[in-house]
Design brief:
alpha+beta, 257 residues, single chain, Beta-Lactamase, Arc Repressor Mutant, subunit A
């Protein structure tokens, strides 16, 4: 699933850029505002270096400050928007997931694995006035969303073991899988079935179904799936009414990826 075709020589890297990006990534739901000391702790930088990076972000418009605390500004969204605008995958899949959405009346998403999270890169415009699912740019821990399980099913056993070993199986609901052993069983089952269904792993009352997106060589490039209220479909109904549409879209996209 790695799109990098070659190994980059370390002498060609700009370490400062990497450190600056680490500072941006330090901000999240739990840390919307940070001091230089907190930033240093989260990034492994010295306090002096963290402060200089934060001030640089302020200078270039990517952060704000009151002199003590720092926070990101909306300008940071330009970074993600650049990916959405330039990446081939979101533009390629859009007409296919739009067709599926019109056929079944549900919102359809495409997501890709980024480390230990799934990032949603494309979303259909659902026929319903009120729809559920993830907006473009949203991120979710891979162990609690269906696309994460089907995407991870493309890993080798050694790669999967390493991923599970490094992952934090945080619980979001009483239904969340919180042990690596059970999660590994689910991933292996998804590998055999070529799809997976989850119920209320991340949000109570919501279920999901997904299958992997593979290119012409069989390499997994992400997942296509749907999220819907759990009361809307039984698992058998999801497999009978929704899964064939997802399979059809994945198959149609395969020679194009």
């Amino acid at each position: 699933m790695d799109d990098t075709p070659f190994q980059i020589d370390k002498k060609d890297l700009i370490e400062g850029l990497g450190k600056g990006l680490r500072v941006i990534e330090a901000f999240d739901d739990d840390h919307p505002r940070l001091t230089p000391s907190e930033t240093a702790h989260l990034t492994g930088l010295t306090r002096t270096a963290a402060r200089r990076y934060l001030l640089s972000l302020v200078h270039f418009g990517y952060a704000g400050t009151d002199g003590k605390l720092f926070w990101l500004t909306p300008r940071v969204l330009r970074l993600s928007q650049s990916y959405i605008g330039a990446a081939r995958l979101p533009r390629l899949v859009q007409p296919f997931i739009q067709r599926v959405s019109m056929q079944c009346g549900e919102t359809v998403n495409v997501s890709v694995l980024d480390g230990h999270e799934m990032v949603y890169v494309a979303r259909s415009n659902a026929p319903r006035v009120v729809s559920v699912g993830y907006h473009v740019g949203a991120r979710a821990p891979a162990h609690v969303v269906t696309p994460g399980i089907v995407t991870l099913s493309a890993l080798s056993e050694a790669e999967l073991d390493a991923w599970i070993q490094a992952h934090d199986f945080h619980a979001f609901t009483a239904h969340t899988v919180t042990t690596g052993e059970v999660f590994r069983e689910h991933v292996r089952a998804a590998r055999t079935l070529d799809h997976w269904i989850t119920h209320q792993q991340l949000d109570l009352g919501l279920s999901g179904i997904a299958t992997a997106l593979r290119d012409r060589k069989g390499v997994c490039k992400g997942a296509v799936g749907m999220t819907m209220p759990s009361i809307s479909y039984t698992p058998d109904q999801m497999r009978a009414n929704l899964l064939p549409l997802l399979y059809e879209a994945a198959q149609a996209l395969r020679p194009l990826l």
